[in-house]
Amino acid sequence: MPTRRFACMITLFASTMTAQAGEVDLVRVDKSERRLELLSGDKVVRSYAMVLGANPMGHKAMEGDERTPEGRYLLDWRNPESGYFRSIHISYPNVDDVAAAKRAGVEPGGMIMIHGQPNGYGWWSWLIQMFDWTNGCIAVTDEDMAEIWQMVANGTPIEINP
Questions:
Q1: What span, in angstroms and rounded, lies between the C-alpha atoms of 144 and 72?
Q2: What span, in angstroms and rounded, lies between the C-alpha atoms of 153 and 162?
Q3: Which of these, 9, 38, 4, lies nearest to 144 by C-alpha position?
Q4: Could you tell me the pLDDT band of residue 127, with boundaries at 50, 70 and 90?
Q5: Which has the closest alpha carbon to 56: 24, 78, 30?
Q6: What's this model's pTM, rounded to 2 decimal places?
Q7: Contact 117/125 with Cβ under 8 angstroms?
């Protein structure tokens, strides 16, 4: 009967995760602390360590600068088949980002995501997550990404702070 008990625990865990998915109404990122938080109202319901682009200081200004944007965006779509363990898209660039890049004569870049580890390398996360390595995305462990994937709905705002 241990298998049946285990199956019941999995079902209970899955239903708990689904019940919490609608509760997350903001994802907050603190770049300086390398912390990603899921909030329901004013309450932090989950908190994760994360890493950023290889040049993390400041707001993303152009394609290839390896910076993570700062400001308020939406998590607008997801990709279960990405080159990383799942990914959720951040709605960068917005109209202000496009206008700033145009004034500077550069492309703003895009495809900024929250994602797990490169596919097949999740077991290396203990090492990979020790330094900023993305091209401007927000990276977490595969385990953390699986939880974020379940708890955060498309359309959830994300606030990225310096």
A1: 22
A2: 24
A3: 38
A4: confident
A5: 30
A6: 0.84
A7: yes
pLDDT tens column, 27-80: 999 999 999 999 999 999 999 999 999 999 999 999 999 999 999 999 999 999
Contact 81, 73 (CB under 8 A): no
Helix axes 2-21, 142-151, angle to 10 degrees: 60
Q: For residue 124, what is the DSSP state?
A: G
State how far the Cα of 46 lies from the Cα of 65, in Å rounded to an integer: 30
Task: Tell me the residue type at 126.
Answer: W
Whole-angstrom Cα distance, residue 85 to residue 87? 7
Handedness of CA 84, 121, 24, 21 (dihedral sign): positive
**Residue 152 to residues 8, 38, 66, 89, 98, Cα–Cα distance (Å):** 24, 8, 25, 12, 26
